[in-house]
Write a structure and sequence with these properties.
138 residues, mainly beta, 48% strand, eight-stranded antiparallel beta barrel
């Protein structure tokens, strides 16, 4: 009986952490005008572009990509956030990568705080980092 109770407690704890991590799932408006939908796949979080909103004065393809073969790739639907993991100990989403189509570069990504209608996002490259607020949309 004691083992069953212990297993039940572990199961409930695991579900609670998973649900807490899932709080970032949704659609967000980014300061660069892109709208991104964050979703979960295989216990990691990803994000794809769902609206361009006249991004970079009308940019619709990946023209800043160093790989010339990818410069005609449409931005709409592009996965730009990869491999975010929920860290239940610190209540953060860490170890992610984000592609910035306005620069054609990948950045390290973590989400440090979630509030009712926004998330606080930290992007970094080498020793430089920048904190942004993404607004949740319906």
């Amino acid at each position: 009986m004691r083992n069953k109770i212990l297993i039940l407690i572990m199961f409930i704890t695991t579900i609670t952490f998973a649900q807490k991590g899932d709080e970032i799932i949704g659609k967000y408006h980014l300061p660069n005008k892109l709208d991104v939908m964050i979703f979960k796949h295989n216990d990691k979080y990803y994000g794809k572009i769902i609206a361009l909103n006249n991004f970079e004065d009308g940019q619709t393809t990946d023209i800043n990509n160093d790989d010339k073969g990818k410069q005609s790739t449409p931005l709409m639907g592009m996965i730009i956030i990869k491999d975010l993991e929920y860290d239940s100990e610190n209540n953060e989403w860490i170890n992610g990568k984000m592609y910035g189509p306005e620069k054609g570069m990948f950045f390290n990504l973590k989400i440090t705080e979630r509030r009712k209608n926004e998330i606080e996002v930290v992007g970094s490259k080498y020793f430089f980092w920048h904190t942004l607020i993404w607004t949740k949309i319906d």
